[in-house]
Specification:
This protein has helices spanning 7-19, 23-29, 65-77, 81-84, 87-105; strands at 47-52, 58-62. By secondary structure, the chain is mainly alpha-helical. The protein has one domain. A two-stranded antiparallel sheet has the order 1-2. The relative contact order is 0.11.
């Protein structure tokens, strides 16, 4: 599968995660055992974890959308240096960027 991954496809998937709907996760949280047959049609992309206790409490954890948005923005703003450059030029570009970030922090 790794050989089939393309940058565009990964960016599209990150976008789906960052801006997707959590409606189906809510449906899952309120689904009882009798209607479990409908689970295959739910989009649970945003679901990280779900817990049900014996007393009926449901705890749902979603993927951190802010992290997904930050990752997506970073990838859109800073395309992979190695794709545009090769060898020493890529190294010098990376050093320049790192030096710029260090001087901005001080």
């Amino acid at each position: 599968m790794a050989g089939k991954l393309k940058r565009k496809g990964v960016l599209e998937r990150l976008e789906q995660i960052a801006f997707g709907s959590s409606n189906d996760v809510v449906k899952l949280a309120f689904t009882d055992e009798e209607s479990e047959g409908d689970l295959d049609s739910l989009d649970l992309t945003l679901l990280s974890e779900i817990k049900r206790t014996n007393n009926g409490t449901v705890e749902v954890k979603l993927i951190d959308r802010l992290k997904m948005i930050e990752l997506l923005l970073r990838e859109l703003e800073e395309p992979q240096v190695m794709q545009r450059s090769k060898g020493a030029e890529a190294l010098f570009t990376a050093i320049d960027r790192a030096a710029g970030k260090v001087s901005d922090d001080n």
